[in-house]
Design a protein that fits this description.
The complex is a heterodimer of chains A (about 280) and B (about 725).
Chain A: H1 9-36, H2 41-44, H3 59-67, H4 70-101, H5 107-117, H6 126-135, H7 142-146, H8 153-164, H9 168-176, H10 181-192, H11 194-210, H12 213-218, H13 227-232, H14 242-264, H15 271-277
Helix pairs in contact in A: 3-14, 4-8, 4-11, 11-14
Chain B: H1 3-19, E1 27-34, H2 36-51, E2 55-62, H3 67-76, E3 83-87, H4 91-96, H5 104-108, H6 119-123, E4 126-127, E5 130-131, E6 134-140, E7 142-146, H7 147-152, H8 162-175, H9 189-198, E8 203-205, E9 207-209, H10 213-226, H11 237-246, E10 251-254, H12 257-265, E11 273-276, E12 288-295, H13 302-313, H14 315-325, E13 328-329, H15 338-341, H16 347-355, H17 365-380, H18 386-402, H19 410-437, H20 447-472, H21 479-482, H22 494-500, H23 503-535, H24 542-554, H25 557-568, H26 574-581, H27 596-621, H28 625-633, H29 638-649, H30 651-666, H31 670-675, H32 687-697, H33 701-732
Parallel strand pairs in B: 1-2, 1-3
Antiparallel strand pairs in B: 3-12, 4-5, 6-12, 6-13, 7-10, 7-11, 8-9
Helix pairs in contact in B: 2-14, 17-18, 23-27, 23-30, 23-32, 24-27, 27-30, 30-33, 32-33
The chains are: A mainly alpha (about 280), B alpha+beta (about 725).
Chain lengths: ~280, ~725
């Protein structure tokens, strides 16, 4: 892979044909969503739908912006997703560092306990968490919304797996140079974990960004609703305005795509490897 | 109240006042409404505020999705508003939770004429001689039919009784090629009940079901399926519109919302369709739906709350409300308004409303309704005789009603106390045992600081709730106990024993295992293959391809579901079109018992593989180039590179991905929840979906928790095996 290999034109063609075919399959619903958001109601459900709208209309978006205070709910969503992402990446990375590279009593047991909790379906803990937050007086607050999401066993596990692969020699060298554990964590470990941190950033941002039931339950006032909750309010019990719904879906998806585009730049080849060799 | 307590509550009060400043001033009401009404009620509130200066009404909208969960958590958390809109079938539950205020005291001195409400609308508010709510708006079901197609089959008027409707359906089907005569969803208990009531059947009167009438209804409906006049399928409103337009379904049953839906999304059909009353059996009976207004017991301002409810439910406001929202009035006087009386599409509704019936007022109704669906499905699919279906359903209903309410036993509190004490004791004991064997000198105390934030948060928001839900799994915690702890009884392992005999749970368990056994290998292999392709040196425009594969993960589930429904549509879906091109027969992708689960697996793999792909991509980046360089100098092929470098270097990641994907697939939920609701015949029911239904729809929280722990045991076993295999493999390298 590293050393340039010669590929026959036939191989190249087959490879690209395969890649493009798979992209058509994965992108199709997204394109569909985009085009539906510009269609008029009469065009949305037909026997032979077209990829592009025959009559372009902005009605879906106009209705959306008229019905929802977009700025307010966007603000709430950004606060929620950004604080969950920043705090959880930091807290989880810290814990993962301890589990991967530090020695303390009961390390394996505590880690096993964490793994075990991941196996309990999240739905059963929702009501107890609600009651705990209520007793702390944190209902209807950003703190109550964000706090439960700032540590995740999944992320600790993933980071630990990654950190465990980083050679001990790097850390030892730093310790000899007089680095504190925090300095090692911050200046050596985190930069080495860039690809995986980028991945986790995307996961936790998207998780919070698309989250629906939790913000709905914890926020008691409409002005604190996040975007998905506010958009869900536009659906009737039986009626659905699909143009409006898809316009909403586009508005929700775009920031997530941007975050992913930004994050994926950090998949840089072999930093860890370079460090060992150097 | 001690001084300290007082200070605490004063401080708390202060916090709340700061949080919602106007709450402390003057006359204020908090009112919740759901869906479109959540926005429209603002206009009614402004009207009331203008007439009653000094009153401030704070309205809040709740989306229909999640409204039930939101209301129940609000009741449990004692955060309910003064007034809320409530679905008619939710009334008994909230009454059972002891959450809503009886209204007879207010009605005595009120000018509101309760006899003016339709009898079916009264029934959902009236329980054992007392009013618990006021009807706000109603809806009922009628027939929608294509006038042009009916005329072509020789019918100028819509048939008015069962027999002629059957003949009409046969003529309709014979007059066109392809499609059916009638959409008769097999998973909709409301539709079954209407026919059952028309046939003279009764529910929970003396006996759960009327013998003979149930069988008669099944026999009548089964004729439509057996003679191919209607397909054996679940219903879906969006598909319905297109099918109605194409004539695939020239007749269907639906509510008043369909009028505007048809007018806006199928303008070409205007003038070619009409509504008609349901054909009568022994008697006329439709389904009474709609919403009520209730006052919560916790309301501090009941007199004012009543005034506003009275205002919304009165005939004057109901007629105005129709103009605002299109909701049909529950008040008969309001129907005299010209906008209502003069609308020809509404006359069928007006006729049905007089005799429309509401389901029985029992708190366990949602659970019973689910069982009606199952029984009707089994009978019309011909898996059991109608009589056997009735007997089984009757037994289920009796069992559901019997186990609902129980008295508190003292033993519960003692058990709970002992159990809670045991946790810290055993944790300390385990820890002491561990530390004695450790080598203290090498420990790095600084680790505590690194662990502190994450572990603290996990302890509060994960460990404690998990222990609490485990305790709950050994109680009968249900809706009667939601708002009243004295009704929660310790039942030991009764829930667990019950689950192992529950056929729906067992079906869910089987489906979940099938889903994981097929889904996990397919999904992980695909992710790895795609990650390798994305990493291939040959590839240009990497960022584009990475985003493209990740798009399904990001895209909102509603949009994904809409598209997959279209792909799987039996009439015009892409999959059936493709089958048609190669000459194969069309399939019911989501309605066939054997295809439904594989269809959902395909969708889940499509939606999820990008997630693992980017984990693999990130891991591939960390494999040093030097390794590849050294092996390629030795003349290794690409295949050898993969087997000797890539795969071994990905071992840790692959292990992580397999463990996580297995856990995720065993908690299979979103796809059946949104696509099939667990049907047909529970063929796509999963453990977590059943748990969610039991927990958040039927409020059998103890039973649902027990389910979570059985699933937990299963996941634990799987993960333990995976860890063991991983250890073994490591030893071999």
């Amino acid at each position: 892979m590293a050393a340039a290999k010669r590929h026959s034109p036939a191989y190249k063609f087959a490879f690209y044909a395969f890649m493009l075919a798979s992209v058509v399959i994965t992108l199709f619903p997204f394109v569909w969503m985009l085009s539906t958001s510009f269609k008029s109601p009469g065009e949305i459900f037909t026997k032979t739908p077209t990829i592009l709208p025959q009559l372009w209309t902005l009605a879906g978006y106009r209705n959306l912006f008229a019905a929802v205070n977009m700025g307010l709910h966007l603000f709430n969503s950004v606060i929620y997703a950004v604080s969950v992402t920043v705090l959880s990446v930091l807290f989880n990375a810290m814990a993962a560092y301890a589990f991967a590279k530090l020695r303390f009593p009961g390390r394996e047991k505590l880690f096993a306990l964490l793994l075990v909790t991941m196996m309990v379906p999240g739905q059963v803990t929702m009501l107890p968490v609600f009651l705990i937050l209520k007793s702390m007086g944190l209902l209807n607050s950003y703190a109550g919304l964000v706090l439960p999401g700032t540590a995740a066993v999944f992320a600790i596990f993933m980071l630990r797996q990654f950190m465990a692969e980083i050679p001990e020699e790097i850390l030892e060298a730093a310790r000899i140079d007089g680095f504190s554990e925090f300095a090692i964590f911050w200046r050596i470990m985190l930069p080495l974990c860039k690809p995986i941190i980028a991945t986790l950033t995307v996961f936790s941002f998207i998780g919070a960004w698309n989250d629906f039931l939790w913000p709905l339950i914890i926020m008691l006032r409409e002005d604190k609703y996040t975007l998905p909750v506010a958009l869900a309010g536009l659906n009737g019990q039986y009626n659905t305005d699909w143009g409006l719904l898809m316009a909403g879906a586009v508005v929700v998806v775009l920031p997530a795509v941007i975050i992913f585009l930004m994050a994926q730049k950090h998949y840089i080849k072999g930093i860890a490897a370079g460090a060992v060799k150097g | 109240m001690s001084l300290k307590n007082k200070a605490f509550y004063a401080a708390l009060g202060l916090v709340f006042c700061l949080g919602r400043a106007p709450a402390c001033a003057g006359q204020q009401l908090n009112v919740w409404a759901i869906g479109a009404e959540g926005k429209l009620i603002r206009q009614a509130a402004e009207l009331y505020e203008a007439r009653n200066p000094g009153v401030k009404i704070v309205t809040q909208g709740i989306p229909w999705t999640g409204a039930h969960e939101k209301l129940v958590t609000a009741v449990v958390g004692n955060m309910a508003p003064d007034i809320s809109q409530l679905g008619t079938t939710w009334m008994p539950e909230f009454r059972a939770m002891n959450a809503i205020e009886p209204l007879d005291g207010f009605l005595k001195t009120s000018a509101l004429d309760t006899a003016d409400f339709f009898p079916g609308a009264r029934d959902s508010n009236f329980h054992q001689g007392e009013w618990y709510g006021l009807p706000w708006y109603v809806d009922t079901r009628v027939m929608y039919y294509r006038k042009d197609l009916a005329a072509r089959a020789g019918y100028k008027k819509f048939p008015t009784d069962w027999e002629s409707f059957y003949k009409f359906s046969k003529a309709l089907k014979a007059s066109k090629d392809g499609g059916y005569a009638f959409s008769l969803p097999t998973n909709d208990w409301q539709i079954f009940l209407m026919f059952y009531w028309q046939n003279g059947g009764e529910l929970l009167k003396d006996s759960p079901l009327t013998a003979g009438k149930f069988e008669g209804t099944i026999d009548y409906l089964k004729r439509f399926f057996d003679e191919d006049l209607a397909p054996l399928e679940g219903g879906n409103d969006t598909d319905l519109l297109t099918a109605f337009e194409s004539g695939y379904y020239p007749v269907f049953i639906s509510g008043p919302w369909m009028i505007s839906q048809l007018e806006t999304s199928k303008p070409l059909l205007n003038g070619r369709w009409a509504t008609a009353p349901l054909p009568a059996g022994e008697r006329r009976a439709s389904f009474m739906g709609g919403c009520n207004l209730v006052m919560f017991k916790s309301s501090p301002n009941k007199a004012l709350a009543w005034k506003f409810m009275e205002f919304l439910a009165g005939p004057e406001m109901q007629a105005r409300w129709y103009a605002l929202s299109g909701d049909l009035p529950a008040s008969r006087k309001a129907w005299l308004a010209p906008a209502l009386a003069g609308n020809p599409q509404l006359s069928a509704f007006r006729l049905e409303l007089d005799t429309a019936k509401a389901p029985p007022q029992v708190a366990e109704w949602e659970n019973i309704a689910g069982n009606i669906n199952d029984a009707v499905e089994e009978a019309v699919f011909g898996r059991v005789t109608p009589q056997a279906a009735r007997e089984k359903l009757s037994a289920r209903i009796e069992k559901i009603l019997a186990k609902s309410e129980r008295q508190q036993s003292g033993a519960f509190k003692i058990w709970l106390a002992i159990f809670l004490c045991l946790i810290p004791v055993s944790a300390v004991a385990l820890h002491l045992r561990g530390t004695r064997t450790g080598t203290r000198s090498k420990y790095q105390p600084i680790a505590v600081l690194f662990l502190l934030p994450a572990v603290l948060i996990l302890a509060v928001f994960l460990f404690i709730p998990i222990v609490a839900s485990f305790v709950a799994s050994m109680t009968n915690w249900n809706m009667y106990g939601v708002n009243d702890w004295t009704k929660v009884v310790f039942v030991g392992l009764e829930n667990y024993a019950g689950l192992l005999r529950d056929p729906v749970f067992l079906a869910g368990l089987r489906n979940t295992l099938v889903f994981a056994f097929i889904g996990v290998p397919v999904s992980v292999t695909l992710s790895l293959a795609m990650a390798l392709a994305l990493n291939a040196q040959l590839l240009r425009a990497r960022a584009f391809f990475r985003v493209a594969y990740f798009i399904p993960v990001i895209t909102t589930m509603v949009a994904v579901a809409m598209i997959w429904r279209w792909l799987y549509n039996p009439e015009f879906g892409l999959f059936n079109l493709a089958l048609g091109y190669v000459g194969l027969p069309a399939q019911g992708w989501l309605s066939n018992r054997w295809l439904a689960l594989p269809s959902l697996i395909l969708m889940a793999v499509w939606k999820g593989f990008g997630y693992n792909t980017i984990i693999f991509v990130a891991a591939l980046q960390s494999i040093p180039d030097s390794l590849y360089e050294s092996i390629s100098i030795d003349g290794a092929t690409t295949r050898q590179e993969f087997w000797y470098i890539t795969l071994p270097m990905l071992r840790n990641t692959a292990f992580f991905v397999i463990v996580m994907t297995t856990i995720g697939y065993l908690q299979f939920f979103a796809e059946p929840y949104i696509m099939t609701g667990g049907g047909p015949l529970n063929a796509t029911m999963s453990v977590v979906l059943y748990m969610y239904q039991q927990g958040f729809k039927f409020y059998n929280l103890g039973y649902a928790s027990a389910m979570a722990y059985i699933l937990f045991g299963l996941i634990f076993a799987f993960t333990a095996v995976q860890f063991r295999v991983q250890k073994k493999l490591e030893g071999n390298f």
